[in-house]
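Practice problem 4.
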């Protein structure tokens, strides 16, 4: 039988002693050992680099190194090759230290013979071989336990953890922190008695059992686990350890529950007879429909070709990207497939579909099948739309009724104010005339050479005239309902009113810009009252800009409700009305936000005390409302204010 000799490197500076060892080995073992000598550590390093050796015999005392240091230096060079130490009696303590540091064995040089040396060398080589096999086996099992997704645990007879594989990190946390803890501590309370009994029976009988239970984690979440246990017995045949291999089946359990829910829904839906059911083999891309699905999608039986792409072809173009994206998200496990979309039937009608589905996965978590059902909810959506429109119409009617109610309340208030104003005006007008006549009389009989008397009389006369102006406005406010209506070109009224304030415009250095629609239809109005409106609006703009600025007039015609801008109150107009729109804009300082929403109320003014009565805009709005129109005043973003008037056009031909 052929064999390979055991190659031994003897690191020894005494050549005669090496020859002694070689002769001793040859006498008892024949050619089983091949010895080569290295006189120094440097020489040993060269030889170890050029040829493989099964073991090294080392003299601790060499010319360049002595004692334990000799071993440590060689060990650093050959970490895996077994080293046998030779030493004298006096150095036996150092030899023991070398063994503790990793040497296989030590021999006293004076006691070595061929038989002893052969035996020790064989043992050293065999021990190293066994250690290497054990190391490889441990490495093999370490790689298995660290790379499998299953949960591997080693428990003692009391159920305390001796080892947990790294995969436990995803279920119970850091495996290192689990060592020494009770393996039953995290068992769900409802499963604890059953699992404890199974463990005790496994320890007592030595027969492993399969179990399914739940872990209750610290954060309150639950993981479902399937386990099987096996025992490790000691020399006496008694159970010493239990090895438990488990698998996290939470996803499978959830899929089963989802499938159960869907199955129940499918059963109920099938009984109702208004739901289509589908089954999609994701791997083979095969889609199966029941008869109801063809009715839901408006297709004749067997028209569908059974592929995912064919289903995509039925989707409404606007809904297709979202519906397909949600389906792919469901396959990836990012969300449930529960959505709505539209499909186009063969007759080109559009139908609303409600879809619900569940994904089934393999052991690796990959999608393999999808089950679901579809409803045609078109009638439901139409009913909802009708209901929304009805609610919108009811709200509009309510808002209109509320606006009309507010107008009636405001009209009643204005009627009361008008009656009061008329009474006050009539009562005050005659005394004012008497006072004015008295001032004129006193002025005629008083010496005009006295400037103080003249100044006092002029102030009194101005105060009377201002009071008379307020009285006249109160009369206008209270009697504005008497209108003399006739069809007029609103452009002409605007321009004539502009001429009446021409002097004020020139004095205030105001530039006028006209943008008047030459095709403007006639408007039925009281020309005098409407000129009063425009003059009042022009004067307000002049006062806001003076000195300098731009006054712009713009007119156009639209049909309601296709009007560029609309008043807050649209009560006066109905669909199809021809509306003449007038805009008067200025580049002044605008209106204070504090009073902007109240400028049309009586006695509200933005002018300094003594400069305005606060009735001008109230009278203006009253006149516009009596013409069946509306008016609004807003600040412009670029500065200044804009007054907008809406008046119903006459159906008479333009003159």
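Answer key:
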């Amino acid at each position: 039988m052929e064999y390979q000799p055991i190659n031994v490197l003897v690191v020894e500076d005494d050549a005669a002693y090496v020859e002694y060892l070689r002769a001793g080995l040859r006498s008892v073992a024949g050619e089983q050992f091949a010895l080569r000598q290295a006189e120094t550590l440097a020489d040993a390093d060269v030889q170890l680099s050029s040829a493989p050796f099964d073991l090294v015999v080392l003299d601790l005392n060499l010319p360049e190194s002595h004692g334990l240091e000799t071993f440590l230096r060689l060990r650093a060079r050959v970490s895996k090759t077994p080293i046998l130490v030779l030493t004298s009696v006096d150095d036996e303590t150092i030899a023991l230290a070398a063994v503790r540091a990793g040497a296989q064995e030590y021999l006293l040089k004076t006691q070595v013979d061929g038989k002893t040396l052969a035996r020790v060398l064989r043992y050293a080589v065999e021990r190293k071989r066994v250690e290497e096999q054990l190391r490889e086996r441990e490495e093999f099992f370490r790689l298995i336990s660290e790379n499998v997704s299953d949960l591997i645990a080693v428990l003692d007879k009391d159920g305390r953890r001796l080892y947990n594989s790294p995969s436990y990190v995803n279920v119970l946390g850091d495996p290192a922190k689990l060592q020494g803890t009770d393996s039953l501590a995290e068992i769900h309370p409802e499963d604890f008695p059953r699992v404890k009994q199974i463990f005790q029976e496994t320890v007592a009988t030595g027969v492993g059992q399969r179990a399914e239970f739940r872990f209750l984690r610290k954060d309150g979440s639950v993981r479902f686990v399937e386990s099987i246990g096996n025992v490790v017995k000691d020399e006496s045949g008694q159970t010493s350890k239990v090895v438990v291999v488990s698998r996290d089946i939470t996803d499978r359990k959830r899929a089963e529950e989802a499938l159960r829910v869907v199955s129940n829904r499918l059963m109920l839906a099938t009984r109702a007879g208004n739901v289509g059911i589908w089954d999609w083999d994701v791997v083979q891309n095969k889609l199966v429909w029941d008869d109801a699905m063809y009715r839901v999608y408006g297709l004749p039986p067997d028209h569908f070709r059974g592929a995912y792409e064919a289903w995509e072809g039925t989707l409404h173009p606007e809904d297709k990207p979202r519906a397909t994206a949600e389906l792919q998200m469901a396959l990836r496990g990012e969300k449930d497939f529960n959505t709505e979309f539209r499909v186009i039937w063969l007759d080109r009608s559009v139908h609303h579909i409600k879809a619900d589905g569940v994904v089934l996965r393999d052991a690796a978590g990959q999608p393999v099948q999808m089950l679901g059902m579809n409803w045609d909810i078109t009638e439901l959506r139409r009913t909802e739309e009708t209901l929304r429109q009805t609610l919108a119409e009811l709200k509009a009617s309510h808002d209109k009724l509320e606006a009309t109610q507010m107008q009636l309340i405001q009209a009643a208030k204005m009627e009361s104010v008008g009656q009061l104003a008329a009474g006050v005006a009539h009562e005050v007008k005659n005394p004012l005339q008497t006072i004015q006549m008295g001032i004129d009389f006193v002025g005629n009989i008083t010496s005009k050479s006295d400037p103080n008397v003249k100044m006092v009389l002029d102030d009194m006369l101005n105060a009377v005239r201002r009071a008379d102006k307020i009285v006249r406005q109160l009369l206008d406010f209270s009697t504005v309902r008497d209108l003399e209506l006739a069809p007029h070109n609103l452009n002409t009224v605007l321009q004539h009113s502009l001429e009446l304030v021409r002097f004020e415009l020139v004095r205030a250095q105001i530039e006028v810009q006209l943008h008047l629609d030459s095709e403007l239809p006639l408007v039925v109005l009281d020309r005098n009252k409407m000129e009063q409106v425009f003059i009042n609006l022009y004067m307000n703009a002049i006062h806001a800009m003076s000195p300098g600025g731009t006054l712009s007039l713009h007119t156009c015609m639209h049909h309601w409700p296709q009007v560029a801008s609309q008043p807050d109150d649209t009560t006066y107009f109905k669909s199809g009305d021809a509306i003449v729109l007038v805009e008067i804009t200025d580049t002044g300082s605008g209106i204070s936000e504090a009073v902007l929403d109240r400028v049309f109320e009586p006695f509200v003014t933005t002018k300094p005390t003594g400069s305005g009565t606060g009735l001008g805009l109230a009278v203006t709005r009253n006149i516009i409302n009596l013409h069946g129109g509306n008016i609004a005043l807003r600040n412009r973003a670029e500065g200044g204010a804009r007054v907008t008037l809406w008046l119903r056009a006459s159906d008479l031909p333009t003159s």
